[in-house]
Write a structure and sequence with these properties.
With 275 residues, the protein is α/β, with parallel strands linked by helices. It has eight helices and 14 strands. It has a single domain, classed as Alpha-Beta Barrel (TIM Barrel). The N and C termini lie far apart (50 Å). Bound molecules: iron/sulfur cluster.
Length: 275
Amino acid sequence: MKVRCNICPHHCNIEEGHIGLCRARTNREGQITSENYGKLTALALDPIEKKPLAHFYPGSRILSIGSYGCNLKCSFCQNSDISMVGGDEIGIQETTAEEMVQKALLLQNRRNIGIAYTYNEPLIGYEFVRDCAMLVKEKGMRNVVVTNGYICEEPLKQLLPFIDAFNIDLKCFTEHYYHELGGDLETVKRTIEIAAEQSHVEITTLIVPGKNDTNEEMEKLSEWLSMISPEIPLHISRFFPRWQMQDCEATPVERVYQLAKLARNKLLHVHEGNC
Ligand code: SF4
């Protein structure tokens, strides 16, 4: 019997023993189960600025963990070695939420403020993020989610009380390019609006030459963001050739600076990234 997953708008109908589009969720005995629960592919104590979060506990560090899989298929993915694979194609380290929180606590003496769920798309591993986040909160530490924002409203709202800060990708401001990436603009806009009501939110837009780099698109994007709040920080990042776009040129540095200058007409905190 097929079972529908309700974490993201793909709503995969998964047959028993099969795996969803993100390669992280399966149907086991009629239940949707997180296949990547507690399976880490990356773990590091990173500066908070690397998430990137420029206005949330600056100068601190955060224990950053990642698993595998993703529910979008961006041809420019900068982390494809972990996001575009299943669990049988990559080395993993198994852990528990309790172990992660103990580690986070022990690292407080190295300026750790909590746990960041990052590197691949963390919200497809929803249950592990939720279980860690609840324990982290109990210990008085902070939770950070770095996400593509492609999640359904209900699971997002249930997680929100435990998340102190988000960095959300706003990959472009056109539906047609979002569809090419396997998502949709309206869902990501709604995620940003909902998250910004309760948590600290910063946005990242990776500028891909010829895809999302026009003045007009940046004007529309920054105008829309400023209507939520002109204080939301926007990170405008430079693309480097990766995954299926290895034969493309990196974004010219001056283009990133020009777009950041435009965005500053609407927003108070605009940061150039990877320049
Ligand atoms: S989270 Fe994964 S399995 Fe669930 S609907 Fe999205 S892509 Fe499909």
